[in-house]
Amino acid sequence: MTTAQPAQPAPRAPRLKEPQVRSGRLRPGAEQWSWRFMRLSGPLLVVLILTHLFINLMTGDGVNQIDFAFVAGKWAAPLWKIWDLTMLVLAMLHGGNGMRLLINDYAQRPWMKKLLHGALGVAVIGIIVLGSLVIFTFDPCPTGTDPELLNIELCKELGRL
């Protein structure tokens, strides 16, 4: 009679450590805040943009009313300046953040990522600065302008006509 030897357990493959993938961000948790910003700014942008379109296109004479005088009258009220500034800033930051994610996904060389991120940052900041300047330095009654183009009531109220 032969005695059976006890079955030996199968050898286990050595466990390899999974490589740590770093996002390249200097602040831990920044991607989570980026994700949250996108989820909050998206619905807010929808409300801001749909209201903007409704006021500009559906009230009054529709698209026929949009001219220099319409914009001057609208931006005479601080509410609409803040509304348009908020829409501009949120849209640029939301879109810039989305582009940043695309750059991270598709740019493979580190120097290309840096170049594209730099160009994106310059574009986003530049458009926000220029748009803010337009909103806050807009002159509703420029001198030497044809009075038919101006909002006459607004210019009289401001003492510019």
From TrEMBL:
Keyword hit for Protein transport: no
Keywords: Heme, Iron, Membrane, Metal-binding, Transmembrane, Transmembrane helix
Compartment(s): Membrane
Main location: membrane
InterPro entries recorded: SQR/QFR_C/D (IPR034804), SuccDH_FuR_B_TM-su (IPR000701)
Domain of life (superkingdom): Bacteria
Claim: Transmembrane is one of the keywords in the record: yes
Positions of the UniProt region annotated as Disordered: 1-25
Transmembrane residue ranges: 37-55, 75-94, 115-138
SUPFAM superfamilies per record: Fumarate reductase respiratory complex transmembrane subunits
Official protein name in the record: Succinate dehydrogenase
Species this chain originates from: Demequina sediminis
